[in-house]
Design goal:
Layout lengths: L1 E7 L8 E9 L2 E11 L4 E2 L4 E2 L6 H24 L6 H15 L8 H38 L7 H12 L5 H17 L10 H13 L4 H22 L25 H9 L5 H16 L13 E2 L2 E5 L6 E5 L2 H9 L9 H13 L7 E8 L2 E8 L7 H13 L4 H8 L5 H11 L2 H6 L4
Antiparallel strand pairs: 1-2, 2-3, 4-5, 6-7, 7-8, 9-10
InterPro entries: Arm-DNA-bind_5 (IPR035386), DNA_brk_join_enz (IPR011010), Integrase-like_cat_sf (IPR013762), Integrase_catalytic (IPR002104), Integrase_recombinase_N (IPR010998), SAM-like_dom (IPR025269), Tyrosine_recombinase_XerCD (IPR050090)
Pfam family, one: Phage_int_SAM_5
GO molecular function: DNA binding
């Protein structure tokens, strides 16, 4: 079977890549130089065309098209005669076609013909040498992979480079997400090279993540970071990422089942008697989050942030300055802890707060949670206590504010949102009195 491809040869001193066209039939290559050389970013190896951004594009594309047509004609003629388009038969037929076309152009000087033949032979020798070098590099890579010392073009190596370059620009939590990406790529295909990533590879990685049962929001985040690394290095490495623009991520389907505490449930949490100091600490941290709407990254503030029972601080996530009055319940908790909540690992907190909530009867009712893995709808039913985590505190604060008629614009300023759209999309439908709303339609 015959195949014709476009080749960008190593760049010359001008930073340009000579363009050749390669015909392969059953492993037998025939390569012709087009006489055109451009920077890699101005040539499309799929269409075989030079970008119209270059003034000589029409003439150069005509030269490339002529060589391509002559190669096609050579293979077609050989097959029509019952032959096989091998390297030698293609060279002979190609020379005959070019000679026939040039009959009307006058006799070509002998030295030019000889030079052209020499150049073609040298290019073919270069092709063979490049293939040998590529093969030897692969042998070295395989040996280094076995020893665990290979980095080279491995994608995980470029993930490490990306995080190292961005470490002063992105927060610790985001850096951990890139570490997670690295681990997943290593598990998916440890020898994946950055220059081997195609649309097919990305689709396979996405489907692999779905098969692992990861939720859509997690998969979307992973794949967005996957593409961020590729795009960051695409220009310096000369990667052709045009095809990757066709990649389709998993759908972003919002989970309407927000978990938050009602006013009664929050009251039960704040008044439950706990003998274990660890549980008291966890309850107090969560209580402050429910009473202020602070994120986990902001809840461990100091007494310096509180003046006349008003909390002021700059959030870690968005660098937004927020100011909100503290309720008497919040002040009571802060005074009990000397305005310095003791830090704890978030993973430990999320485990212990579930234990504390399980002690409260009002939080032991069943809740249904729906999430998506790919296109599969997954339904879970479990006690509400098991669904409580750090972020439920912020959701509780916003929901209770809306239920009690606080202006969404005021809530926005308290919690540090850039606009009220997120508040209204996520919470507004949960705050209405359902009986009153249905009474507007039916008696």
């Amino acid at each position: 079977m015959s195949k014709i491809t476009f080749i960008l040869r190593p760049e010359n001193k001008k930073g340009e890549h000579p363009i050749s066209i390669k015909h392969t039939h059953d492993g037998s290559p025939f390569v012709k130089a087009t006489g055109v050389a451009v920077q890699a970013k101005y040539f499309n190896q799929i269409t075989g065309k030079v970008s119209n951004k270059l003034p000589m594009a029409p003439e150069w594309n005509a030269c490339i098209a002529q060589v391509y047509a002559d190669i096609e004609a050579s293979a077609r003629n050989i097959l029509g005669k019952g032959g096989e388009p091998t390297t030698q038969t293609m060279a002979d037929e190609y020379a005959a076609i070019v000679a026939q076309r040039r009959v009307g152009e006058g006799q070509e000087p002998l030295q030019v013909k000889e030079a052209t033949t020499l150049i073609e032979r040298l290019y073919q020798e270069l092709e063979a040498l490049e293939a040998a070098v590529s093969s030897k590099k692969q042998e070295i890579q395989n040996a280094e992979l076995k020893l665990g010392i290979y980095e080279g073009a491995l994608f995980v190596h470029f993930i490490d480079r990306y995080t190292d370059e961005k470490k002063n620009l992105i927060n610790t939590k985001t850096l951990k997400l890139y570490t997670n990406l690295r681990n997943l790529v290593n598990e998916f295909k440890s020898c994946l090279r950055i220059d081997d990533i195609t649309l097919t590879v990305m689709n396979s990685f996405r489907d692999w993540l779905v098969d692992r049962g990861l939720r859509n929001l997690t998969i979307r985040s992973i794949l967005i970071k996957f593409k961020a690394v590729i795009n960051h290095f695409s220009e310096p490495l000369g990667l052709n990422t045009k095809e990757l623009r066709k990649f389709v991520n998993v759908k972003k389907i919002k989970n309407k089942n927000l978990i938050y505490l009602t006013k009664e449930e929050l009251g039960d949490l704040l008044t439950i008697k706990l003998d274990n100091p660890r549980y008291q600490r966890v309850r107090d941290i969560f209580g402050i989050m429910c009473l202020t709407g602070l994120r986990w990254s902001d809840v461990f503030f100091s007494e310096a942030n509180v003046k006349s029972n008003v909390l002021s601080l700059t959030t870690n996530k968005t660098a937004t300055t927020i100011t909100l009055p503290l309720s008497s319940q919040a002040v009571e908790i802060l005074e009990r802890n000397n305005y310095a909540l003791q830090r704890i690992a978030q993973s430990e907190f999320n485990t212990q707060i579930k234990v504390v909530c399980a002690m409260i009867p009002s939080l032991c009712g069943l809740e249904e949670i729906i999430h998506y893995t790919g296109t599969n709808r997954v339904r879970q039913v479990m006690p509400k206590a098991k669904l409580i985590s750090a972020h439920a505190g912020r959701k509780t604060f916003i929901n209770l504010c809306l239920q009690n008629g606080v202006n969404p614009a005021v809530i926005k300023g308290w919690v540090g949102h850039s606009d009220i759209k997120m508040i209204m999309e996520h919470y507004a439908h949960l705050t209405a009195n359902q009986n009153e709303e249905i009474a507007k339609v039916f008696v």
